[in-house]
Design a protein that fits this description.
CATH class of the largest domain: Alpha Beta
Number of helices: 11
Keywords: Acyltransferase, Transferase
Helix content: 10-25%
Family: Belongs to the acetyltransferase Eis family.
Subunit structure: Homohexamer; trimer of dimers.
Number of domains: 3
Oligomer: single chain
CATH topology of the largest domain: Aminopeptidase
Largest sheet: 7 strands, mixed
Structural class: alpha+beta
Strand content: 25-35%
Protein name: GNAT family N-acetyltransferase
Distance between the termini: 27 Å
Order of helices and strands: EHEEEHEHEEEHHEEEHEHEEHEEEEHHEH
Organism: Amycolatopsis samaneae
CATH superfamily of the largest domain: Gcn5-related N-acetyltransferase (GNAT)
Number of strands: 19
């Protein structure tokens, strides 16, 4: 078996193979070749597993993104996708061979981090990935959508500034691209959406050309600073919000208030509701906001631990010795992390460890989405000192919870 990179000429083979691996058939592209997920694929980052007689049996792809780290640091990252093996060749080492080759390629590009959306959670931990951001939905019945009267002196007393304009998706692509790019630069865990994704309609709404209404929020100066893309399944039915992008919580609330005031609907469903947003508390009936479908979203895999830990921003000073195992790559390292004034320094050390953990668990705590103490209590991470978990919690804490909206 050979694992080889693809070329432009391999696109049809690559697309057919990954669809066959999942038992599906490709959608029909638009006349311009857009409107399908593979319109944004990067052939030089895709891999094919080919048998000795030339038959393709597996695929693994990657996109070139930027990831926002805590501290609003932007770093290049590999977005792993289109991973599949034909049912006839599973349990034969094909996936492991592709993952090993892909991680080597990511390192060769100088990227210290790879991310993915896991189709099956049991698969990717063994390759060193850990769930780093989480997602959920919030459903609000229309008849319970009234907002509370703010208490005197509360921040909600401040009058809302700005306006909300209703547009069609086909008429506001440039606005969406600009607002999303502004948003993702300040949101830990967010991925960039390169222009070719928008121009080719490669992805889920509102990137795709699927018909949608879009509520666009503008600030007092007329600058667009938020949007909500949505569709109604039928009159009197459910209004589903694909995503709400806002530069701050106030803009998000203004968009939510607009959608919750929509006539002739029974409920509003906010997909990818951001962690920590106060909307449920802003409703007159706290129980009206019903969270559901909580789960993992972005998974992270560190390939250069000192590089990753010195790249992100930090919000507390301290020291921590991490003993990290990487079983898939057969690597092991012990590192002293020292943080002073928001800057981290990470070097190999022979000091006794504070925490012992797998590289997948380090991926889970890296963006601040999971507290180290949670993994200690779960039995994933071993704390060698009574105060080690608490010190790790304080060190890895972030000012804003990581959140990712992008599907790839």
């Amino acid at each position: 078996m050979e694992i080889r990179p693809t070329t432009e000429k391999d696109l049809d083979v690559f697309v057919d193979t990954v669809h066959a691996a999942f038992g599906r058939f490709p959608d029909t592209p638009a006349d311009d070749g857009g409107g399908v997920w593979w319109a944004a694929t990067e052939p030089d980052r895709n891999l094919l597993a080919v048998t000795a007689d030339g038959r393709p049996v597996g695929t693994a792809g990657a996109y070139s993104f930027e990831l926002t780290l805590p501290g609003e640091v932007l770093v290049p990252v590999a977005g792993v996708s289109a991973v599949g093996v034909l049912a006839t060749h599973r349990r034969q080492g094909v996936l492991s061979a592709m993952m090993r080759r892909q991680l080597a390629d990511v390192r060769a590009r100088g990227e210290f981090l790879a991310v993915l959306l896991a189709s099956e959670t049991l698969i990717y931990r063994r390759f060193g990935y850990g769930p780093a951001t989480h997602t959920r939905r919030l459903t609000v019945p229309r008849h319970q959508a009234a907002f509370a009267v703010p208490r005197a002196g509360g921040t909600a007393d401040a009058p809302e500034t700005g306006t909300v304009e209703l547009l069609r998706r086909a008429d506001c692509g440039e606005i969406l691209e600009q607002v999303y790019d502004r948003y993702r630069r300040g949101q830990p865990g967010a991925l960039s959406r390169p222009h070719r994704w928008w121009s080719s309609g490669a992805g889920h709404p509102p990137i795709s050309p699927a018909p949608r209404y879009v509520a666009v929020h503008r600030d007092a100066d007329g600058l667009a600073d938020g949007y909500a893309s949505y569709a109604l399944d039928e009159p009197g039915g459910t209004l589903t919000v694909d995503e709400t992008v806002a530069v701050d919580d106030t803009v998000y609330t203004a968009l939510a208030r607009c959608l919750l005031g929509h006539d002739l609907i029974t409920r509003v469903v906010f997909k990818h509701f951001p962690p920590g947003h106060p909307l449920r508390w802003q409703l007159a009936d706290f129980r009206a906001g019903q969270p559901s479908d909580e789960g993992d979203w972005l998974w992270a895999r560190l390939l250069d631990i000192p590089g990753a830990l010195t790249a992100r921003g930090w919000f507390a000073d301290g020291e921590l010795v991490l003993d990290v195992e990487d079983p898939f790559l057969g690597e092991h390292g012990r590192y002293l992390l020292t943080v002073r004034d928001g800057t981290g320094d990470c070097v190999p050390t022979d000091r006794e460890p504070d925490l012992s953990l797998d590289v997948s668990d380090l991926g889970s705590i890296y963006l601040g989405g999971t507290a180290p103490s949670t993994l200690v209590h779960a039995g994933h991470v071993r704390a060698h000192h009574a105060d080690a978990a608490a010190r790790a919690d304080a060190l890895f804490r972030t000012e804003r919870a990581p959140h990712c909206l992008h599907w790839f």
